[in-house]
Each structure stands twice: as structure tokens, then as C-alpha cells.
Design brief:
Blueprint lengths: L4 E5 L20 H14 L3 E7 L24 E7 L2 E7 L5 H17 L31 H12 L3 H6 L2 H14 L3 H4 L3 H14 L5
Helix pairs in contact: 1-2, 3-7, 5-7
């Protein structure tokens, strides 16, 4: 896995949901899925990668990535959003009953879209147009320096006192991240706002191994 991503709670889904999810599993490992996704994101020169899922904080490793054996959430849908050489893009998938399969389906879709260029038909990357988001007009945000700074920002969004946030367990704070995601403008409606991305940065600083 050769790319960084922010994982944030899944709160809003673009469009109708899949009612008859496929329960047949892909014949592949979780590690292979991450390798494939990393390779496709690399080819797109992806940055500011954000992955939304219904997984809880208990299912995340210290670096924020989901555990390979994470319990399947009630909502297995996955959304992968990122800025690319073709502009901001977002790929949702909830066709499968397990979150790992939805993530692999997104990776395979990126691979298939790239293959369209193989025969020189889509010379202007037309195959990606349907997945583009509105670009953000705000400057890039590189993360919170301290836990206190992250807690202060989260307090401003949720109205929960900063000191309370700092004393909470990771599982308690996961509820705040979801609340913040509901309160802030969503990328599908307002493009790819930096404020929404700050949820992931706050989670990395508050729940991660680095306790600076």
C-alpha cells in the first residue's frame, strides 16, 4: 500500500441505495485490493484521498486504515473521493454485501476506466467526466499540529467543549465525527470542501498513535 488516505464516517449517500446486494465474494485478498487501489490512484496522480465507510473506530488500525478482519457494518457501502490530474472525483459503491468487496469493485472500476484509453478512443479522459466533483476553491489543509488544535476545531463544529473531547475515548469521539459530517457541507453537494476533510485530519490526530 503506497498511498495515504483519510477515513471518515459514511453519513450521506449520493442517490438511491442498492436493494439487492451481491453476496458472492471476490476471489482476492484485502491486501491485493489495497495494492490495486493504490496503483490506480497512483496512475491518476491522486491526492487528498478520502474513504468513507460505515466502519467504527474499533475496526481501524492505529494508522486509520480498516483492519482486514473488520466486522461488516450494517451499511457496507464505500465511497472513495480524491483530487486527480483530471480534477476532483468520487466513486461510491454499495452493490456488494461486504465492505471489502465494494472497495475492490471501486479499484476494479478505476482499472477498467483507465483501460478505455488503451485504444486511443477517449483522448480527453471523457470516461471520467461522470465521476467528477466540483473543484474546491479553498486552499489545501495539511493537518492539525496538536491534539488540542484538532479538539478545538471539532468543538467549534459540534459545540462539545474541547476538554471533553480530549478526555473522550476513541469510540465516544466516533459519534462526534459522524455529527460533524452531518453538520458540514458534503462533497457531493458542494464539491470537495476542505472543512469536510478536516474530520479525517482531526481523527488522525486525536485517535492516532501520535499524541503530540
Amino acid at each position: 500500500m503506497a498511498f495515504e488516505a483519510l477515513f471518515i464516517p459514511l453519513t450521506t449517500w449520493p442517490g438511491p441505495r442498492e436493494k439487492n446486494r451481491v453476496r458472492v465474494r471476490f476471489d482476492s485478498t484485502y491486501a491485493n485490493t489495497l495494492d490495486l487501489l493504490a496503483e490506480e490512484l497512483r496512475r491518476l496522480v491522486a491526492r487528498q484521498v478520502v474513504i468513507q465507510s460505515g466502519l467504527s473506530s474499533f475496526d481501524s488500525r492505529n494508522d486509520g486504515w480498516p483492519r482486514s478482519n473488520a466486522k461488516n457494518p450494517e451499511d457496507p457501502g464505500v465511497i472513495v473521493s480524491f483530487a486527480s490530474k483530471y480534477g476532483p472525483m468520487s466513486y461510491p459503491c454499495d452493490c456488494f454485501a461486504f465492505w471489502q468487496d465494494n472497495m475492490r469493485a471501486i479499484a476494479l472500476s478505476l482499472q477498467a476506466l483507465r483501460a478505455v484509453d488503451r485504444y486511443g478512443v477517449a483522448r480527453r479522459a471523457e470516461q471520467y467526466r461522470g465521476w467528477k466533483q466540483l473543484p474546491s476553491a479553498t486552499p489545501a489543509f495539511s493537518g492539525f499540529v496538536t491534539r488540542a488544535e484538532a479538539a478545538m476545531w471539532l468543538a467549534g463544529v459540534t459545540a462539545v467543549p474541547k476538554d471533553c473531547i480530549l478526555e473522550m475515548t476513541a469510540s465516544r469521539r466516533s459519534e462526534l465525527y459522524r455529527a460533524a459530517a452531518r453538520l458540514l457541507p458534503h462533497p457531493y453537494t458542494f464539491g470537495f470542501p476542505e472543512e469536510f476533510l478536516k474530520i479525517g485530519w482531526a481523527k488522525l490526530r486525536l485517535d492516532g498513535a501520535d499524541r503530540a
